[in-house]
């Protein structure tokens, strides 16, 4: 995780660790534990693999593939754009952008969207990959643009949320959020519904805006800045809220895990938590990667803690996802870890990308796992009991 000060000064995680050592923060940053040795009972079976350019190209980006059911769309920082079939990895089209890419893909039924290093929002045809339009942003964006088919919303690192006409890229509205002096270099993509847009901010707030005009409807505080220093007061929300029918579930760093009514912003329930990512759900349980790297499972009905897996501490794990009887996460050294959904025991492991894994694993068709490493390797795996 990186930190941004005044939009321009950035620190690596190592620098952040050094800076936090002498501070009375709620999360004490420590050295990552070695990759745990396990007696594997499940293995990752590769279905297909491919290379997507240079991946994140040694930049702190979050270029997660877009799984659209019948197609996977992926982009690399050096401008390679691909569309592949989920079942076999066969390329449907491939093109090279003239611009380095900072964020994407987002998409709707007809178009794809990404943001360039020069802060331009670009729209492509999903079917042909032809460029349809581009629009300028006031500053860089790290979160994938989101669309409901008629409105495209981009969020920039300085807290601006901007709505564009999906047909031609015309700017329709802009909301200026507040950004603290110091914030994590994260990528919480907005949620875009038919009449409401929900955006997460580095000041620990989630704000609902009208889709037609970008006017605030409600706001909810996931984390409240506390402490004497800017480091102590970090309360970023680093992941897109999880939609559950008429509510959203959200988590924040040095904040809480909460369920919030999507129409009113009223809190349904909450409990203390500290995480860089949103939670995931599966089999009636909630799974959260704590800021210290622990994977925690809560019972969905009453949020009672079911288990904690602490053998991945400080390994910068990705958002855990449930697939069948397992929970899967990646880490900064490029390992994939399969945990038992029942008790959190480590049951499988695979070294995937030596450059690390930053974007979450995604569950796709047939419960298979879509993985994209920092170095550009993309693959689909299934989890099978080890013979």
From TrEMBL:
<comment type="subunit">
    <text>Part of the Bam complex.</text>
</comment>
<keyword id="KW-0472">Membrane</keyword>
<comment type="similarity">
    <text>Belongs to the BamB family.</text>
</comment>
<keyword id="KW-0998">Cell outer membrane</keyword>
<dbReference type="InterPro" id="IPR015943">
    <property type="entry name" value="WD40/YVTN_repeat-like_dom_sf"/>
</dbReference>
<feature type="signal peptide">
    <location>
        <begin position="1"/>
        <end position="26"/>
    </location>
</feature>
<keyword id="KW-0564">Palmitate</keyword>
<dbReference type="InterPro" id="IPR017687">
    <property type="entry name" value="BamB"/>
</dbReference>
<keyword id="KW-0449">Lipoprotein</keyword>
<feature type="domain" description="Pyrrolo-quinoline quinone repeat">
    <location>
        <begin position="78"/>
        <end position="308"/>
    </location>
</feature>
<dbReference type="InterPro" id="IPR002372">
    <property type="entry name" value="PQQ_rpt_dom"/>
</dbReference>
<protein>
    <recommendedName>
        <fullName>Outer membrane protein assembly factor BamB</fullName>
    </recommendedName>
</protein>
<dbReference type="InterPro" id="IPR011047">
    <property type="entry name" value="Quinoprotein_ADH-like_sf"/>
</dbReference>
<dbReference type="Pfam" id="PF13360">
    <property type="entry name" value="PQQ_2"/>
</dbReference>
<comment type="function">
    <text>Part of the outer membrane protein assembly complex, which is involved in assembly and insertion of beta-barrel proteins into the outer membrane.</text>
</comment>
<dbReference type="InterPro" id="IPR018391">
    <property type="entry name" value="PQQ_b-propeller_rpt"/>
</dbReference>
<keyword id="KW-0732">Signal</keyword>
């Amino acid at each position: 995780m990186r930190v941004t000060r005044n939009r321009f000064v950035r620190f690596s995680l190592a620098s952040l660790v050094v800076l936090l050592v002498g501070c009375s923060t709620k999360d004490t940053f420590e050295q990552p534990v070695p990759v745990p040795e396990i007696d594997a009972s499940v293995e990752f079976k590769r279905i297909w693999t491919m290379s997507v350019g240079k991946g994140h190209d040694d930049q702190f980006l979050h270029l997660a593939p877009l799984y659209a059911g019948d197609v996977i769309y992926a982009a690399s920082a050096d401008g390679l754009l691909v569309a592949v079939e989920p079942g076999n990895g066969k390329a449907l089209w491939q093109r090279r952008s003239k611009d380095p890419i900072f964020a994407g893909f987002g998409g709707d039924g007809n178009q794809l969207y990404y943001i360039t290093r020069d802060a331009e929002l670009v729209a492509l045809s999903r079917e042909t990959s032809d460029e349809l339009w581009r629009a300028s942003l006031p500053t860089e964006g790290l979160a994938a643009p989101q669309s409901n088919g008629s409105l495209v919303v981009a969020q920039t690192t300085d807290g601006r949320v901007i709505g564009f006409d999906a047909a031609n890229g015309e700017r329709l509205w802009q909301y200026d959020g507040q950004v603290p002096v110091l914030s994590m270099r994260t990528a919480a993509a907005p949620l875009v519904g038919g009449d409401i847009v929900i955006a997460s901010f580095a000041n620990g707030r989630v704000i609902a805006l009208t889709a037609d005009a970008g006017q605030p409807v409600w706001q909810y505080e996931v984390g409240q800045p506390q402490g004497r220093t800017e480091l102590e007061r970090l309360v970023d929300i680093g992941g897109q809220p999880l939609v559950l029918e008429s509510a959203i579930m959200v988590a924040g760093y040095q904040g809480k895990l909460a369920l919030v009514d999507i129409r009113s912003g009223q809190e349904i329930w909450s409990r203390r938590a500290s995480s860089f990512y949103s939670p995931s759900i599966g089999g009636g349980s909630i799974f959260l990667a704590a800021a210290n790297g622990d994977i925690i499972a809560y019972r969905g009905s009453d949020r009672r803690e079911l288990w904690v897996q602490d053998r991945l501490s400080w390994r910068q794990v990705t958002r855990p996802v449930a697939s069948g009887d397992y929970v899967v996460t990646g880490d900064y050294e490029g390992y994939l870890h399969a945990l038992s959904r029942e008790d959190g025991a480590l049951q499988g492991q695979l070294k995937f990308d030596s450059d690390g894994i930053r974007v979450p694993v995604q569950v796709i068709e047939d419960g298979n796992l879509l993985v994209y490493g920092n170095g550009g390797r993309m693959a689909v795996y299934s989890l099978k009991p080890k013979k």
